[in-house]
Specification:
Shape: globular
Strand order of the largest sheet: 5-3-14-9-10
Bound molecules: the ligand Nc1nc2c(c(=O)[nH]1)N[C@H]1C(S)=C(S)[C@@H](COP(=O)(O)O)O[C@H]1N2, molybdenum atom
CATH architecture of the largest domain: Alpha-Beta Complex
Largest sheet: 5 strands, mixed
CATH superfamily of the largest domain: Oxidoreductase, molybdopterin-binding domain
Structural class: mainly beta
Number of domains: 2
Number of helices: 5
Number of strands: 26
Length: about 375
C-alpha cells in the first residue's frame, strides 16, 4: 500500500493490486480517516454487542435501534465502487497544486455491502419521517480530531437516497472490518466515499443540512469554473456537495511507466459513475487524443459497480503503436447514455481542495 499518513491511516492501493481483484480484498482496500475511533485501526471486526443507532429529528417516534435488531430485518446486498472525493487529486497539479492527500488512481475500491435499506428500516419499524425532512445527516462514533474542531458528519438529500442507502453491517461477506467503519456504516451506492459515514451512531432527519465544517466548508466543488490556483469563498450558493460520483474511467494496465516489449500489449482498466445512468462506451487513444477507438466494455456486477474494459494493441517494436500514433501516451474516456463524458482538460473543474477529478485518464508507458 502507498502510505500517505501512517498515524491516522491514509492508505492508497497501488493499481497493480487493484487490477488483480473483482472485489477488492479488505487487505488491499484504501483507507481514509479524517478522525480516529480508538481501537478501530484494525482489519478485525469492532465489538458490536452494545452498538446502537439513534434515529432523531423529524422522525416519529425517535428511537434507538440495536445491532441485534438490525440483523433480524430484511437484508440487501449491493456491489458498489467506494471512491474518495479526492481520488485523482494529484492530476490537478498539471495546472495548479491542490491541498490534501495527493491520491492518484488508488483511492477507490469495489466491494459488496450487505445491510438494511433505509426505506426498509423505516417501514419495518413503522417510523414516519416528516415531509419537511429534506436532509439525512449521519454521525459516526469517532470524536473530532481536536476539541476545537467540528465533528465529522455529512448530509445527503433524503429523497434521493431513501431507496438506495444501506445501513451496512457486512462487507465482502464478513462483518465490516473496524478500519472500514464496522460494525455499522452508512453506505450510499453511487455517492463519493466521504458521504459513506463509518462507525454510524446517529441518523438525523432534518430540514437543513449539517453546519459542521466537514460538510459546510469541505467536500464541495464550485458551480462555476474557477481559475486554477485561486481560492474563492465557499458558500452554499456557489458550491455543491460531493454527492454523486462523476463518470470516470482509468487505465490500470499498463501501470504508469510499466515497461512493454514488441508484441501485443493488453490495455485494461475500469469505468464507472453514480449508477444512475448506463455507461455505454469507453474509448482509447494512443495518439494523444487525436483519434479514438472503442474498447471492449464488460458488464458491471451492479449499476454501482465498475465496468472492466480491455483492448489489445500491437506494438511492432519500431516506436509506433499504430500508424501515425505516438508511442507512449495512452488515454481513456467513458460515455454514458446521455453522451456525457470526461473532460480532456480535467482542470476545467479545478478547485482548491482537488475534489472530483474525472478528466480523461492518461498513462505514459515505457516501450522497449
Ligand atoms: N466516521 C467517519 N466516516 C468517514 C470518514 C471519517 O473520517 N469518519 N472519512 C470519509 C472519507 S473522506 C472516505 S473517502 C471514506 C473512506 O472509507 P474507507 O476508509 O473505508 O476506505 O470514509 C468516509 N467516512
Ligand atoms: Mo474521502
Amino acid at each position: 500500500m502507498i502510505v500517505h499518513d501512517a498515524e491516522s491511516a491514509v492508505l492508497e492501493t497501488p493499481v497493480e493490486l487493484l487490477r488483480e481483484h473483482t472485489l477488492t480484498p479488505k487487505e488491499y482496500m484504501f483507507v481514509r480517516n479524517n478522525q480516529l475511533l480508538p481501537g478501530a485501526l484494525t482489519l478485525a471486526p469492532y465489538p458490536s454487542d452494545s452498538w446502537n443507532l439513534e434515529l432523531s429529528g423529524l422522525v416519529m417516534p425517535t428511537r434507538t435501534v440495536s445491532l441485534s435488531e438490525f440483523i433480524r430485518l430484511e437484508q440487501t446486498l449491493t456491489v458498489a465502487v467506494l471512491q474518495c472525493a479526492g481520488n485523482g487529486r494529484a492530476f490537478y497539479a498539471r495546472s495548479a497544486m491542490t491541498s490534501g492527500t495527493q491520491w492518484r488512481r488508488g483511492g477507490m475500491a469495489q466491494v459488496s455491502w450487505e445491510g438494511v435499506r433505509l426505506r426498509d428500516l423505516l417501514d419495518s419499524l413503522d417510523l414516519r419521517v416528516s415531509a419537511n425532512a429534506r436532509f439525512l445527516t449521519a454521525e459516526g462514533h469517532d470524536p473530532a480530531a481536536t476539541p476545537a474542531d467540528d465533528d465529522y458528519e455529512q448530509s445527503v438529500p433524503l429523497e434521493d437516497v431513501l431507496d438506495t442507502a444501506l445501513l451496512a453491517t457486512n462487507m465482502n461477506g464478513e462483518p465490516i472490518p473496524a478500519i472500514h467503519g464496522g460494525p455499522l456504516r452508512l453506505v450510499i451506492p453511487g455517492y463519493y466515499g466521504s458521504m459513506n459515514v463509518k462507525w454510524l451512531s446517529r441518523l438525523r432527519f432534518e430540514e437543513d443540512r449539517s453546519s459542521s465544517r466537514h460538510h459546510a466548508q469541505r467536500y464541495r466543488t464550485f458551480r462555476d469554473r474557477i481559475e486554477p490556483g485561486t481560492t474563492p469563498e465557499v458558500t452554499e450558493e456557489t458550491t455543491n456537495s460531493t454527492w454523486h460520483q462523476k463518470i470516470k474511467s482509468v487505465i490500470w494496465e499498463p501501470a504508469e511507466e510499466e515497461r512493454r516489449f514488441p508484441g501485443p500489449i493488453r490495455v485494461s482498466g475500469v469505468a464507472w459513475n453514480d449508477g444512475r445512468t448506463e455507461i455505454v462506451a469507453a474509448e482509447l487513444s494512443t495518439d494523444g487524443g487525436n483519434t479514438w477507438c472503442r474498447v471492449n466494455l464488460e458488464t458491471p456486477l451492479s449499476p454501482y459497480g465498475w465496468h472492466p474494459w480491455h483492448a489489445t494493441l500491437w506494438y511492432e517494436g519500431n516506436g509506433l503503436l499504430r500508424p501515425g500514433g505516438t508511442v507512449e501516451d495512452l488515454r481513456v474516456r467513458a460515455f454514458d447514455a446521455y453522451g456525457r463524458s470526461q473532460p480532456d482538460y480535467g482542470s476545467v473543474h479545478w478547485n482548491p481542495s482537488g475534489y472530483e477529478w474525472y478528466g480523461v485518464d492518461r498513462v505514459k508507458i515505457n516501450l522497449h
